């Protein structure tokens, strides 16, 4: 496949993702917090900082992996880099494969580091890259962590996608053993099971991003790119972010679990943290904001989002993220059934 075709694919992903809309039904609505009438804390004392195993996040929200690898996406990365710097959010770049293959593409990723020299940046590769390329991807951005995406459904629906997966687990072990920054194994919108999370823990992975169903949908995106658009029936494949967070419960002692996929409101984000997430990622909302409304409006959006999260935490009497983990939640019968059928110890 030529570099030109790859560049075109990057742009198509962004275009199709921006045109997608969220389903009106969200699994986050299957969780309700119990309201108590008299909080004994003040809004001004709420602290959003999150302590992970290897670093502290000033903000529990992060800009999740999307772009790089073309001229257009370089411009998007530049703007997202500024937003990360101004808000103190961590930011992941999209898959750096384009830069690893062709150094002319490097600047579409490194622009993020240029915009934000002191920030926390995650680099991103796929589960099939050799260890030396994974190391190169970290060096490219002087990254604090490396996201390794696992995206089998996307590859299988993608007309020109990968069809070989049996080497992934061994390769992941190699990457974890030899890359000298934390490795975050990340889904791309299909969620994770407790079995997958346990397998990853066993090979030394200490961070996963469950990136569940409910937001950007890569079966739909790749299906749009198929000549006959014939795989649309797979649109509901995978676990939602809420189900994935429940699946992660047993692993939360040993691992930092990051939540993403369909997080759209401050209440969704607070629910992720209450379910045990150490941080919460969003992709498409930041893309749409920055491309449709610009940097200043996106900064206001983040400020509002944070302010609303603090207000919700005040109602929950949770002064920080640790307190949120004790918030009382009620699950819908649908979620309760998932918990029972999957034997989850919640
Ligand atoms: C345009 C676009 C490109 C993406 N590219 C990548 C990628 O290169 N690597 C990756 O790990 N995830 C990628 N993702 C997936 C996101 O990081 C995230 O897992 C997914 O979009 C769900 O989050 P959302 O519902 O907030 O968009 C991409 C998402 C979008 C919208």
UniProtKB/TrEMBL annotation:
Organism of derivation: Staphylococcus succinus
Swiss-Prot/TrEMBL keywords: Cytoplasm, Flavoprotein, FMN, Isomerase, Isoprene biosynthesis, Magnesium, Metal-binding, NADP
Family: Belongs to the IPP isomerase type 2 family.
Catalytic activity: isopentenyl diphosphate = dimethylallyl diphosphate
Summary of the function given for this chain in its UniProt record: Involved in the biosynthesis of isoprenoids. Catalyzes the 1,3-allylic rearrangement of the homoallylic substrate isopentenyl (IPP) to its allylic isomer, dimethylallyl diphosphate (DMAPP).
Residues annotated to bind FMN: 65-67, 95, 124, 186, 211, 216, 262-264, 283-284
Protein known as: Isopentenyl-diphosphate delta-isomerase
EC number: 5.3.3.2
Binding positions (substrate): 9-10, 95-97, 154
Top enzyme class: isomerase
Encoding gene (name): fni
PANTHER family for the chain: ISOPENTENYL-DIPHOSPHATE DELTA-ISOMERASE
Residues the entry annotates as binding Mg(2+): 155
Pfam families noted in UniProt: FMN_dh (PF01070)
Subcellular location: Cytoplasm
């Amino acid at each position: 496949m030529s570099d030109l075709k790859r560049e075109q694919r990057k742009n198509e992903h962004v275009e199709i993702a921006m045109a997608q809309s969220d389903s009106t039904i969200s699994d986050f609505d299957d969780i309700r917090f119990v309201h108590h009438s008299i909080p004994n804390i003040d809004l001004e004392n709420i602290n959003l900082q999150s302590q992970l195993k290897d670093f502290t996040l000033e903000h529990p929200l992060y800009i999740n992996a999307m772009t790089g690898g073309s001229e257009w996406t370089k411009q998007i990365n530049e703007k997202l880099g500024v937003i990360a710097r101004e808000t103190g959010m961590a930011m992941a770049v999209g898959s750096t494969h384009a830069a690893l293959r062709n150094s002319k593409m490097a600047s579409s990723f490194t622009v993020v580091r240029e915009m934000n020299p002191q920030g926390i940046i995650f680099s991103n590769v796929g589960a099939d890259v050799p260890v030396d390329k994974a190391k190169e991807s970290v060096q490219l951005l002087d990254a604090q962590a490396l996201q390794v995406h696992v995206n089998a459904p996307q590859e299988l629906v993608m007309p020109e996608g990968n069809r070989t997966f049996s080497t992934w687990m061994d390769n992941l072990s190699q990457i974890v053993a030899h890359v000298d920054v934390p490795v975050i194994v990340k889904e791309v919108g299909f969620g994770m099971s407790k079995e997958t999370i346990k397998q990853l823990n066993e090979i030394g992975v200490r961070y996963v991003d469950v990136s569940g169903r409910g937001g950007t949908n890569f079966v739909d995106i790749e299906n749009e790119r198929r000549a006959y658009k014939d795989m649309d029936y797979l649109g509901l494949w995978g676990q939602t972010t809420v189900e994935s967070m429940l699946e992660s419960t047993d692993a939360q002692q040993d691992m930092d679990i990051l939540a993403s996929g369909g997080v759209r409101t401050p209440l969704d984000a607070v629910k992720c943290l209450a379910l045990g997430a150490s941080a919460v990622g969003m992709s498409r909302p930041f893309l749409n904001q920055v491309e449709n409304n610009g940097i200043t409006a996106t900064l206001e959006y983040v400020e509002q989002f944070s302010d609303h999260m603090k207000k919700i935490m005040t109602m929950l009497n949770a002064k920080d993220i640790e307190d949120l983990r004790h918030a009382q939640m009620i699950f819908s019968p649908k979620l309760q059934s998932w918990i029972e059928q999957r034997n989850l110890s919640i």
